[in-house]
Design brief:
2 helices; 8-stranded antiparallel β-sheet; 8-stranded antiparallel barrel; mainly beta
Length: about 250
């Protein structure tokens, strides 16, 4: 009996010694627990939104309505210009968002601001749900008409304005314009639709004067332009996306 008690006590103390030593041995086995990736993709305030401008649009349904820029979270999007829709891909670099498309020959560049985007022509694009939508009737372009516009700068070709003497005034009711190229008087027909503009049947007197080259550039740009925008007191005339010249209000 004494031997049995001694054996039990020895077994008990041996087990306690093993447990203590087992706890003191460091566990070098690497943890198999996966690390949680806490880095999330950056979410931009302008993603999953539709943008448009607050420029007046025509009431004519054939004009296609307001231009709309759609930006999706998956870095795709589209821009609707009238009846034409371009599919886009986008990326952000610094303070700018760039759009590319197989349907366009160049990148579209927008400055990212707090509550809007600004395109390369200085036009602000707002959240479509927050922008007011004024309209104009075909043939009436608000401050474009009945204002005297005088040359400010040539961009195509890029030459300096030697003297500010090229002027036009548009009569919305008669759909005509009158003006001067700095030497000869000008007149003709004008067609205004949405943001499009076209000067037709431009005629002038035939006097010879100084600065004839400047007058020739002015008339050529009038004949070539097909769209416009007004920012403050400045009139920008374009051929498609190419800026031809700017004029300023003289009234």
């Amino acid at each position: 009996m004494k031997n049995i008690i001694t054996l039990v006590l020895m077994t008990f103390f041996t087990m306690q010694f093993v447990n203590v030593n087992a706890q003191s041995i460091p566990n070098n086995k690497k943890s198999t627990k996966k690390k949680v990736n806490t880095q999330h993709k950056k979410i931009y305030w302008f993603s999953d939104k539709e943008f448009t401008t607050d420029r007046p649009v025509s009431t004519n349904p054939e004009e296609g309505g307001r231009d709309v820029l759609i930006i999706n979270k998956n870095k795709t999007g589209s821009i609707n210009q009238g009846d034409i829709i371009y599919s886009l891909n986008w990326e952000v670099k610094g303070n700018y968002i760039y759009f590319t498309s197989e349907q366009l020959s160049r990148k579209l560049k927008f400055l990212i601001q707090k509550n809007n985007l600004v395109d390369e022509y200085g036009i602000k694009w707002f959240d479509k749900n927050k922008v007011k939508q004024p309209t104009i009737t075909v043939g009436n372009a608000l401050s474009l008409t009945n204002t005297q516009w005088i040359i400010e700068q040539f961009y195509t070709p890029e030459v300096a304005v030697k003297i500010k003497n090229c002027i036009i005034t548009i009569d919305a009711d008669q759909k005509t314009f009158i003006g001067s190229d700095g030497c000869n008087t000008l007149n003709g027909k004008v067609l205004i639709e949405k943001i499009g503009i076209k000067f037709n049947n431009v005629v002038s007197t035939k006097m010879a004067c100084e600065f004839m080259e400047q007058g020739h550039i002015f008339v050529t740009n009038l004949n070539n332009c097909n769209n416009y925008k007004i920012v403050g007191a400045e009139l920008f005339l374009y051929k498609d996306e190419t800026l031809l010249m700017t004029l300023e209000s003289y009234r």
